[in-house]
Amino acid sequence: MKTIIKNTIILLALLGAFFQVNAAQNFIYQDAVLKDDNGKTAKVFVGVPVTIKEEIGKNVKVSIKGFMFKDEVYSTKSKDLLVAKVEKGFNVNQKDGNEVELIGTLAKELTASDLLDVWGEHEEFYFEMCTQCHAGPEVNHHTMMEWEAIFGTMRGFAKLDEEEASYLLRYLKANASDGFVKTKH
Ligand code: HEC
Known about the structure:
Blueprint: H1 2-24, E1 26-28, E2 32-35, E3 41-44, E4 49-56, E5 59-69, E6 72-74, E7 82-86, E8 92-94, E9 99-107, E10 111-112, H2 115-130, H3 144-157, H4 162-174
Antiparallel strand pairs: 1-4, 1-10, 2-3, 3-7, 4-5, 5-6, 5-9, 6-7, 8-9
Helix pairs in contact: 3-4
Bound molecules: heme C (HEC).
């Protein structure tokens, strides 16, 4: 009986954590174009966290945060992961220093709250390519910087071409301990 209660509590705690993530956050489902009020565009990339401000028919108005360098917005000041590429004249809300907020609309179907929807295919490719010699390492046990370094060797081992390498490295960094999907381990 005791173990049943214990397991139930653990399960509830896990579900709680899971739904918290889901309720709070949506993500860019695939590379997409964001439009500001003047019709200027920004390219936003898969996995970027978005806050939905408003639903307008089939579209959503979203807020995306990051650090801007020239026309590029990154998830961190150290430019670890690309969030968006902004067209000249795109309306950018400047905060402290390089910190910015982009607000614009895109099709609602280009956002998703379920991380499996966003990263499922990447994950499959990861297991296909990276478990030939060893078990697939837990992606969130490394930081973005660590992945950058490890991947330098492993992409050669897995014989990835340019496109496959950047596809996979984005998955690894986005899901790293300090990536888009912040999980504590
Ligand atoms: C051809 C075999 C092979 C393939 C394919 C391979 N690895 Fe490895 N991996 C190794 C070997 C050997 C080591 C241990 C030696 C080393 O660190 O260089 C290792 C170590 C690692 C480590 C631990 C490194 C550390 O410093 O803690 C990680 C993480 C890793 N691999 C990730 C990957 C990823 C991601 C891929 C897919 C892109 C991949 N591996 C594909 C052979 C492989």
